[in-house]
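Q: How would the structure tokens look for this protein?
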Amino acid sequence: MSKRVMNPAVRVTAVALATAGLGASLVAGAGSAFAAESKAAPVAGTAAAAVEAQAVTQAKVAAQAKVAAQAKAAKAAKAAQAAKVKAAAAKAAAKPAAAKKAKGWVKPVTAYTLTASYNQGGAMWSHKHSGQDFAVPVGTPVKAAGSGTVVKAGPNGGGDGPAYGNAIVVRHANGTYSQYAHLSKIQVHVGQKVAAGQKIALSGNTGNSSGPHLHFEIRTTPNYGSAVNPAAFLRNHGVTI
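A: Here is the predicted structure in token form.
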């Protein structure tokens, strides 16, 4: 057999082509890797943008929550201040009302049983009854029904007669007089000023009395014989007995 020998020129050409092919493969591979990197870069950029957008959104939400909390706190503070002002106004309004009440009229005794009434007839009196009787135990505090000045105080009805026992008469600013009789103890003196509701005596059973009670009159003068209906008078001044 004959041995074939490749022409050297042809061999050189083949090697060159082979080498060129390898280079092309290397170039192609590098190009593919570069393309892959180029393709992945936008994905990474998009994720970073999403994180940044989420952070911005959270910051906005936090800022809005802070503003809402501040507004709520301001509203609560305003409501508390309004309530404080309202309470102060109510307290200020209550003072004149309390003062007005203190200057008004009150019951001469607190706990009692009504017995003989005004203008009632009976063997106990030479004429009809001149006042309103409040049955109470001896020693019950007796209060001035209205503010005024004591004009009578003492035994013998303070000058109106022994039937009243120990008695007090108070002159009031409206020109009327109140009388308190059958007392066990007198605790004021003539000329003394008294306030409505002030304790002036203790109830008793002195004078022409069938049992412990307070005899109470409203008069147009300081003297016996000028009495008017005390229950009606007190009722007209806001006091019901």
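Residues 1-38 have pLDDT under 50 and may be disordered.

The first strand starts at residue 113 and ends at 114.

Upvote if useful.
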